[in-house]
Design goal:
The complex is a heterodimer.
Chain A (H helix, E strand, L loop, with lengths): L1 E4 L9 H5 L4 E3 L5 E3 L10 H9 L6 E5 L3
Antiparallel strand pairs in A: 1-4, 2-3
Chain B lengths: L49 H4 L5 H5 L2 H8 L4 E3 L5 E3 L3 H9 L4 E2 L26 H7 L7 H5 L2 H15 L4 E3 H6 L1 H11 L6 H12 L6 H23 L14 H6 L2 E2 L2 E2 L2 H32 L1 H9 L4 H11 L5 E5 L3 E3 L2 E3 L4 E4 L1 H4 L34 H18 L3 E3 L4 E2 L7 E3 L1 E4 L1
Parallel strand pairs in B: 2-10
Antiparallel strand pairs in B: 1-2, 3-7, 4-14, 5-6, 7-10, 8-9, 11-14, 12-13
Helix pairs in contact in B: 7-9, 7-17, 9-13, 10-11, 10-13, 11-13, 13-14, 13-17, 15-17
The chains are: A alpha+beta, B alpha+beta.
Chain lengths: 67, 441
């Protein structure tokens, strides 16, 4: 599984980072990008889904599901 | 069950004349019902038809707005001839669409007043800024409000909370809005700005005069804005001669210094910009979080089962905070229509205003199942309590931190308490408890 943050949509609510600090990093302005190329380590899939479900801007998405 | 003030009568339901459910309801257009706002009267006629004559200063709205919003969501975007003509979206999708549409809606006026008294209005960047300038106006502030930066203020916030609790805990009762919630954000924003905490009561008075009284009384609003600008002018002048009244342990640079030194493309910010931003930081940094902390303490006082769960499961706190923000969102902002536009069949005309009710959007059952119930572990929560789109609140991370610490420290010291009297609510733009009598021990 991979996650992605759409930089055009992200407004820096930082919900993804609060819910899944291992999966997202914030820049100096508080805007998020996916950590480690977006790869979701095993066991963190639920956190990735939670990050998606709590982004007010619909900026976080799961882009690839390796199954 | 929706939570309003205990013991408050909900008042007559909205839209009793309009009636829900009639198909393809026409958009209420100018001239239907209502009255013009050109003759401001201290006696605001009570609202009897919320679809065509809404008024967010009406006591029904102040005391219990939830049934009003529920009713309005079933019809077209509501209209009023008060405030020189304004619209009120209450569905999440409509609020979001307007928040995202900076082509037709400008932020240059973000307070809905009984009349527009200034043209052009005084800027308060970045909240009053539109693209393309908005981005730079906001970016100068953002680095000071990241989760990491505001995390450094946590120990101070805990200390402030405990000092406040020390003052009243032996009494067995207090007003949690007046004696606790209101002092937490003001002390922290004073520290960040670099102004003395001893002036807190002054700040709180100005903000009340600007956001509540000033909405219908131009003189009071103008005077308070001017007093606040003069205050910051004074603190800027001090810095220019190497002096400051900031907390000696305060941040370096403080936010006054940040704005003094701010520039855009090498051109220093104009004084109007600097003072506008500083006024904004103070106004936005106080009433809003005071309201959110107070409403949370009220909810947990009225719902012992939620309180017990939060105490038993402290890891739930961040999720619970989001839910309390959703259910009791304090902040409503306005927009001015910049270009004629039609939304949901409603013809919105240039120069009219829109009241952007994030609190109503956050109670929309189409977006949030069981919207009127506080579900502390709600898993999907895309609430817009801090706005949606480019105007996402600069201080959202600070507000969350203050809420979390404020509630945690309260529950540590006062795990068992109850609301013992009438809760009264603020008027207008920022909604929260202004008196919240509680007893404990």
């Amino acid at each position: 599984m991979k996650v992605r943050v759409d930089p055009e949509r992200c407004e820096g609510h930082s919900r993804c980072h609060a819910l899944a600090p291992d999966l997202f990093v914030l820049d100096d302005f508080g805007n998020a990008t996916a950590a480690s190329d977006g790869r979701v380590p095993p066991g963190l899939e639920d956190k990735a889904r939670l990050a998606v479900a709590n982004c007010p801007e619909y900026a976080v998405e799961i882009v690839e599901d390796a199954g | 069950m929706s939570d309003s003030k205990p013991g408050s009568g909900a008042g007559p339901g909205p839209g009793s004349q309009a009636g829900p459910g009639s198909e393809a309801e026409a958009c209420p257009v100018s001239g239907q019902g209502g009255q013009t706002a050109s003759e401001p009267s201290p006696e605001r006629p009570p609202v009897t038809d919320w679809r065509t004559d809404w008024d967010h200063l009406d006591p029904q709205w102040r005391d219990n707005p939830f049934p009003i919003w529920d009713e309005l969501r079933t019809g077209p975007i509501a209209r009023t001839e008060r405030f020189e003509g304004a619209w009120l979206p209450t569905r999440y999708e409509d609020v979001k669409a307007i928040a995202y549409d900076t082509e037709h809606f400008t932020s240059r006026r973000i307070l809905l007043r009984h009349k527009k008294y200034e043209d052009p209005p005084l800027p308060a960047p970045p909240i009053t800024s539109d693209p393309p300038e908005h981005k730079a106006h906001k970016q100068v502030l953002l680095p000071f409000f990241t989760p990491q930066e505001v995390g450094k203020l946590e120990p101070m916030a805990r200390r402030v909370c405990n000092e406040l609790i020390d003052e009243f805990i032996a009494d067995g009762r207090c007003d949690a809005a007046q004696h606790y919630a209101r002092h937490i954000p003001v002390r922290i924003i004073a520290y960040m700005l670099g102004v003395p905490v001893r002036d807190s009561d002054l700040f709180i008075r100005w903000i009340h005069e600007i956001l509540e009284v000033g909405i219908v009384d131009d003189e009071i609003g103008k005077n308070a804005t001017k007093a606040m600008r003069d205050y910051f002018r004074h603190h800027i002048a001090l810095r220019k001669v190497g002096r400051t009244e900031a907390d000696p342990d305060g941040p370096e640079p403080d936010l006054i210094r940040v704005m003094m030194d701010g520039s855009l493309n090498g051109v220093p910010f104009e004084e109007n910009h600097v003072l506008g931003t500083l006024n904004l930081l103070m106004i936005a940094g106080i009433d809003t979080t005071w309201s959110a902390i107070g409403a949370s303490i009220m909810h947990l006082g009225l719902h012992p089962e939620d309180r017990a769960r939060l105490i038993a499961e402290p890891g739930l706190m961040p999720t619970a905070i989001e839910e309390l923000l959703r259910a009791y969102s304090p902040v409503t902002m306005a927009r001015e229509i910049k270009k004629d536009v039609e939304l949901g069949g409603c013809p919105m005309k240039k120069g009219e205003m829109v009241l952007l009710s994030f609190p109503a959007a956050n109670r929309d059952p189409a977006m949030f199942p069981d919207a009127d119930r506080v579900v502390l572990d709600r898993q999907e929560n895309r609430h817009g309590a801090f706005g949606l789109g480019i105007h996402r609140c600069v201080g959202s991370n600070l507000a969350r931190m203050e809420m979390q610490i404020g509630i945690e420290e309260w529950l540590k010291r006062i795990p068992d308490y109850r609301v013992v009297g009438d809760v009264t609510w603020s008027d207008g733009t920022v909604r929260g408890p202004r008196t919240l009598p509680v007893a404990f021990g």
